[in-house]
Amino acid sequence: MNLSDPELRPLGRKAYGSIPHLPGSRTGPADRHLPPALARVCTEQVRDARDHVVVLEKLDGSCVAAARQGDTLLALGREGRLAAHSPNEARRLWADWVAAHSERFMAVLKPGEWLVGEWLALAHSTRYALTHEPFVAFDLMSQGQRLPWTQVTERLRVADFVTPGLVHEGGPLDIASAMSRLQPRGFHHALDSVEGAVWRLERRDGSGVRVDFLAKYVRRDKVDGGLLPENTGRPAHWNWRPEASPSKEVLP
């Protein structure tokens, strides 16, 4: 594998796909909505007792991943390319951060797995007064499949990674209630309006628990990249820079 190739996708695929939107969520040209029947499972009525809903705060940063291939750890962008070769400074900082915390990632990941999360160093549309490190992990991929949330949190606990604030767990939760519980600043000290929430629909079957699907809600007035210099003509706003040493305390 030529790790100096900026076009290389070590996973042979994207590190993370797009999540469909719930009704009423703000969408862009390339976004899609969840079918209405499945949306109702998340927000109104589960199909039966085997359904389990987990709702997490949706954070506004850059989707990134750390992948283990054998004894090699790779920092990737969402598209699956090596972050170290990105023209984006924040992505290169992600590669540096993964290298600095390699022991923690290796303690969590088995060969062939990758951890996905939000890299909050650079403000995109939401500023954060972070009281924890700039990476927030929200999915652990094993054999290309998402692990159930309980397994994710158990695995991450050994390395003390931060996870998104838990809004709700159990039965369905409507959008208005989810957004109300995230006011005024969410779980991660947002200085601007909280972006939204992610619903994880997990289902128990004969072989255990599996993740059936995910859905998200993004507030209607959210502007993608509203704080990025290329869109504003103003200097970047950094939630975190390497010289800072934020605590890893997770807000209640």
Write up what this structure looks like:
There is one protein chain. The chain has helices at residues 36-43, 89-100, 102-108, 149-157, 175-181, 229-232, and strands spanning 51-58, 62-69, 72-77, 114-119, 135-142, 145-146, 166-170, 196-205, 208-218. With 252 residues, the protein is of the alpha+beta class. The strands form 2 sheets. The chain has a 5-stranded antiparallel beta sheet with strand order 3-2-4-5-6. Strands 7-1-8-9 form a 4-stranded antiparallel beta sheet. The longest helix has 12 residues, at 89-100.
Which key terms come to mind for this protein?
252 residues, 4-stranded antiparallel beta sheet, 6 helices, disordered C terminus
Order of strands, widest sheet: 3-2-4-5-6
**What structural category do the secondary elements indicate?**
alpha+beta
| CA(first)-CA(last) distance | 43 Å
- Average pLDDT works out at 94
Characterize this entry briefly.
The protein is an alpha+beta fold and 252 residues long. It has helices at residues 36-43, 89-100, 102-108, 149-157, 175-181, 229-232; strands at residues 51-58, 62-69, 72-77, 114-119, 135-142, 145-146, 166-170, 196-205, 208-218.
List the SSEs and their pairings.
Blueprint: H1 36-43, E1 51-58, E2 62-69, E3 72-77, H2 89-100, H3 102-108, E4 114-119, E5 135-142, E6 145-146, H4 149-157, E7 166-170, H5 175-181, E8 196-205, E9 208-218, H6 229-232
Antiparallel strand pairs: 1-7, 1-8, 2-3, 2-4, 4-5, 5-6, 8-9
